[in-house]
Amino acid sequence: xxxxxxxxxxxxxxxxxxxxxxxxxxxxxxxxxxxxxxxxxxxxxxxxxxxxxxxxxxxxxxxxxxxxxxxxxxxxxxxxxxxxxxxxxxxxxxxxxxxxxxxxxxxxxxxxxxxxxxxxxxxxxxxxxxxxxxxxxxxxxxxxxxxxxxxxxxxxxxxxxxxxxxxxxxxxxxxxxxxxxxxxxxxxxxxxxxxxxxxxxxxxxxxxxxxxxxxxxxxxxxxxxxxxxxxxxxxxxxxxxxxxxxxxxxxxxxxxxxxxxxxxxxxxxxxxxxxxxxxxxxxxxxxxxxxxxxxxxxxxxxxxxxxxxxxxxxxxxxxxxxxxxxxxxxxxxxxxxxxxxxxxxxxxxxxxxxxxxxxxxxxxxxxxxxxxxxxxxxxxxxxxxx
Length: 386
Fold this sequence. Notes:
Layout: E1 2-10, E2 13-23, E3 29-34, H1 37-53, H2 65-78, H3 83-101, H4 111-124, H5 127-146, H6 175-188, H7 190-202, H8 206-210, E4 217-218, E5 223-226, E6 229-230, E7 236-237, E8 246-249, H9 252-265, H10 284-299, E9 302-305, E10 308-311, H11 316-328, H12 333-340, H13 345-359, H14 362-375
């Protein structure tokens, strides 16, 4: 190893730099230029430690953040993740990471750089988007570290915090709005009625409704089995997660609505409940324009956006509304999680915890404890008086 001074003249002015020369893990001569001798010495201390650990990656051998991102996408595809998942990764990489730091080599990164990148995201993007983008960047860095593409994962200990007040609560329909939608679907016909009852009262995801076959609807038992979904490319596949496989008991009104719709279409068992005109899965756009919007417009649940009439709430709000109804009916958090198909009960509490809190106040709960104890033992009010 050597650190030597280099001088030259440029534009009539003398310039100075310090060149660190060393041999990498493979014995190849490598040199890096610095503005000051102190920077070169500090970097050599880091490099020598990396060489001792066998983890050193030189500047010449280092890949860029964009290249590391492509490794991440390749892994997602090879692991069999859903197309919608890795296309979302690709979109975030293209829109938010590559334009900002894509050309930077991993060996150039340090903690200060990563913290500046985090702060830039928080400044330029919404809090939730910034949090998601930075979490993806940290996954990219972790993968690069696992593949020995970087000497040290400098992003590992850098955290991003956003205020909880930025985390919006789920969107719900009010009960009068639910009734308006169900009434409108009755006017529109059996197809719309079946759709409305399944979505507003049973918590299906959009993709689960598009991929639902008649063989999963048991009108005699009054159950619907969620065992497949149709993604945005109209490809049939398994549900979102293992816990998304579930059996949902249907309300009597839903059984009646689906019976009427089935008697009209007379489907084969493997036919879809809500197909397009060719019998294929609907696209998301078709589902909204052909089924959801007619119900919303007929019920008057609309708003004007940039001079155009739009539905008042998103289709996904029907799923949140179902959960809120179940909670109001006294369903436990575990039962809600099971029927709605969340991957963990923590997700259920994160989304609907405030509804469980509203359902029964602490004071009401303690009064119930008091009532139960007094009712089930030889006690009297005197036992609790001062």
